[in-house]
Amino acid sequence: MKQVLGIIGSTRKMGNSELAVKMISRQIPEEHSLNLLRASDLNIEPCLGCYKCLSREGRCVQDDDMEVFLDALAKADGVILSVPVYFFGPTGIIKMIVDRICMIYPRFEQFIGKPCLIVIPLGIKGKDGYTSAALGSAAMTLGMDIVGEAQILAGGRGEILISEEHHETAKELGSLLFAPRQEVVRDGKRCSICGSQSFKFIEESVECLVCQNQGTLTVNNDEAAIDIGLTSSSELNTLGDRNHHLGFLMGKQKDYPKKREKIKEMSAEYKKDGVWIK
Ligand SMILES: Cc1cc2nc3c(=O)[nH]c(=O)nc-3n(C[C@H](O)[C@H](O)[C@H](O)COP(=O)(O)O)c2cc1C
Hints:
Helix content is 30%, strand content 22%. It has 6 helices and 11 strands. The structure holds flavin mononucleotide (FMN).
């Protein structure tokens, strides 16, 4: 039987994020069990930036719940990532987890290629800010394939339940999780590689904020269209790209001792600057 992992990014019990996961799970045609993780129930420490995990088979020097999270993720066949908008972005606990993702680099094979649905409850239409880009890149950095995404306009706790439209959305998303992979729709409004709607302009190109591939923006009859092609080695969720980044980080670590003495000497004179409040 397939295992679905619902990752809930809200502290609110039986809130819209939790209910969205349960509503979608009920609509998944394939037989499955639903495992749940409320991110805020986990003890997640900030990344120390030491990169020690890279040479410890991905084990962090800190003993917190990251292994609980990674173990649940590794066992899942599919994931529903349901995170509300808090001040134009996802809740902070999700970024705390993403900051620790170097831990998966030495064991990326365990995580790669899992289908993922992204669900974003929000209170005000259009006030989603950078949430989709943040969750899209989080899912891809975790090795997942995004197979569906939806916003759920529902402010009060549990409000998701009373809208027929949200039940329809749950049905649609549920049908997608284990369905044969569909090509991303090339409608000029989304990235044709990963489906994201978040871009930045760089010199003559447009870059997708999620998969980091580049393309062009054209305007025809006042209609703007973006066409992103597979241009970079930065498909975040491929083994090749992860290994490339891992190699880069290991190389940096190897080089650092050569500069350490010089940096130590130069930073000594900055040590006493400023007054620490705490
Ligand atoms: C602190 C806080 C900040 C919020 N910021 C936004 C926001 O920037 N944009 C928005 O549309 N909704 C915002 N909301 C509304 C939530 O996204 C909305 O209520 C959502 O349904 C909560 O999901 P939950 O029930 O799973 O907690 C905010 C809610 C809280 C509590």
